[in-house]
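Milestone M4 deliverable, item 7.
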Amino acid sequence: MTDPIRSPLRSARRYTTASFVVLAVFYVPLALVQSREPLLLVSGAVAGAATIAMTFFWERPAPVWLTVPAVAAVLTSTALAAAHGQNPMVTLLSGFVLALVASYPHPRAWLWRALALIPLLLPVLIAIPFAPDGRAVPHVFSSLFAYAGSLAALLLNRWAFGLYLQLDAAQRTAGDLAVAQERFRFAADLHDIQGHTLHVVRLKARLASKLVDRDPERARQQLDEVLQLVDEAIESTRSLAFGDRTVTLAGELANARQLFEAAGIRSTVDGTPAPQGPADELLGLVVREATTNILRHAQATSVDLTVGQRSVRIVNDGASESPRSPRGLARLAQRLEQAGGRLTTRSEGGAFITEAVIG
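Output delivered:
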C-alpha cells in the first residue's frame, strides 16, 4: 500500500523518529553506568534495546508482540535497580515506554494515562523494602519525572505532526478542487461551443430541407453554411483543447445578428463594444449563451442588444409563461461574480431580459 504521506511530511516523520532513537540511545548508557552486577547489566541492556525498538512507533501504536515484552523488560529492570539501590536513571526507560503506550489515541486517553502510573510505580514501591538504606525512594520521583516529561514530548510531537497532516490534506484538497474547477470550466466552454453550433446547424438543416424543392440554390447555400459551422466548431474545439481559444464581444454580436437573421428574427444592436479587454470575453460569452437560449427556448420575433463599455443587455419578446432555468447563464453568473460583476435575468411584460455588467 502506498504511503499517503508525501515527501516533505515523510522527511519530517523520519527526522522526528531519528531524534527519539538518538535520545534513547543516549540514555541507555546512563541507565547502565552504575550497574555493577551482571543481572542488572543484562536486564538494563534488554530494557534499553526494547526502548530503542519502541521509539520507532512514536507516531502509531506498536504491535502487541513488541509492546508487551518491552513493558515487561523496562519494569523488571526498574524493579531490580530499585531493589539493589542502583542508578535511578534506569527509570527513564520505563517512563518513556509507558508514556509511549499511554500516548496512543484512545477514546478515554486521560484514564489510560492515569492508570499507567500503576505499573510505573508498583515495581518501585514493591522494591523499596528490599533496598538498602531507602535508596529506592529516588526511583519513585525519577519515574514520575520521566513519565511526565516523555508523555508531554510525545503528545506535543503527535499534535504538531497531526497539524502537518491536516495541512497536507488541505493542500491536496485544494489541488483537487483546482483540477475540478478547471474541468468544469472546460466543460462549460465545450458546452458553449458544441451546444451553440449544433443548435444552429439544426436550424439551418431544417431550413435547407424546406427549401430543397422550391429554392435549391438557397438550400445549397444553407448547407454550405452548415459545413462552415461544423469546420468552425472543430477549430474552436481544437483551440479550446490547446488553450488558445478567444471569444470577443464584437464577434459574438455579429454572429448573433447573423443567426437571428437566419432564423427570421429581427435584431438590433445599439452601442459599440469597447476595445478588447478583460471584460470582453465574458460579455461575449453572455451574448453567445443568450443567443443560444433564444434560438432554443424562446418564440421570439425581435431581439434588441444594447452594448455599453462594460455591459451588455439582451431583450427578446419571446418570454414563455414558465421560463426554463438558464443553466448556462447561471454558470456564467458565477464567473462574472468572480470578476467583480453580475448577471441578472428576468421576465417583464412578455419580454425576457438578460443583463450583464462588469465592474
